[in-house]
Specification:
- With 225 residues, the protein is of the alpha+beta class.
- Helix content is 35%, strand content 29%.
- It contains six helices and nine strands.
- The longest helix is centred in the C-terminal third of the chain and has 21 residues.
Length: 225
């Protein structure tokens, strides 16, 4: 089964978030160095907390959990042990949903992105979003963020976080599905995603049809809350 955070858990303090992130970084390093038993890597990280709970204090505490040195050990069934030493040199915590504005305003090298805009039928001009107001949405598992930023500057008073995301809706869909399909039950959200996102899966079409009403209801709730 997929490993998921408990309902109403505090992301800034939950060990699962930290452990999964470090494990993912370690696996990435192992893929790049498959034959090494000891790997030393450094990372700069960007992490995020829900808009409704983030404060300067919780953001700093979350950053401090990632900073400095971590060691991850993988024990293979063959008896081989791989040690990955992770050094986090820089970590920044942003509100969930706010990071998206960086990809709108700047490219990967930090240069301002210029975009062509049609003014009239035969005339275009170039603009950027450095000083534009941007509205971003981040629909997550447990929360939904509506984030307003001026360029990449987060506007907390204009933003808001909803205390629900897709998780409860997906669990309701799974519950109904399992009642109607006792021989082909879905046991986790991870399994739901694997079926729903794979157009070649034999249950894909049926699951999409079974999910449609609940997901449209969730979309309407987010739009009108």
């Amino acid at each position: 089964k997929g490993i998921e955070m408990e309902k109403k858990s505090d992301k800034s303090k939950d060990d699962l978030v930290l452990l999964v992130t470090l494990a993912g970084l370690a696996i990435s390093a192992m893929k790049k160095h498959p034959n090494k038993n000891k790997i030393d890597v450094t990372y700069d990280l960007s992490v995020a907390l829900p808009v409704a709970t983030i404060t300067p204090q919780t953001a700093q505490e979350f950053v401090e959990r990632y900073m400095n040195h971590h060691t991850v050990k993988f024990h293979h069934p063959s008896g081989r042990e791989v040690v990955v030493n992770i050094q986090v040199e820089f970590c920044k915590c942003l509100p969930e949903g706010a990071a998206g504005s960086w990809g709108i305003v700047y490219d990967e090298k930090g240069k301002t992105i210029k975009r062509k805009v049609e003014i009239t039928e035969d005339k275009t001009t170039e603009i950027d979003f450095v000083d534009k107001t941007i509205l971003s949405f981040d629909i997550g598992a447990g929360t939904t963020e509506e984030v307003v930023s001026h360029g990449v500057s987060f506007k907390h008073k204009m933003s808001r976080g909803l205390s629900y995301g897709v998780k409860e809706t997906l669990l309701d869909i799974i519950k109904v599905w399992n009642l109607n399909n006792k021989q082909k039950t879905i046991d986790s959200i991870a399994e739901f995603n694997a079926i729903y996102l794979d157009s070649e899966h034999p249950r894909h079409i049926r699951l999409k049809e079974a999910s449609r009403g609940a997901l449209l209801g969730l979309a309407n709730r987010i739009a009108t809350d």
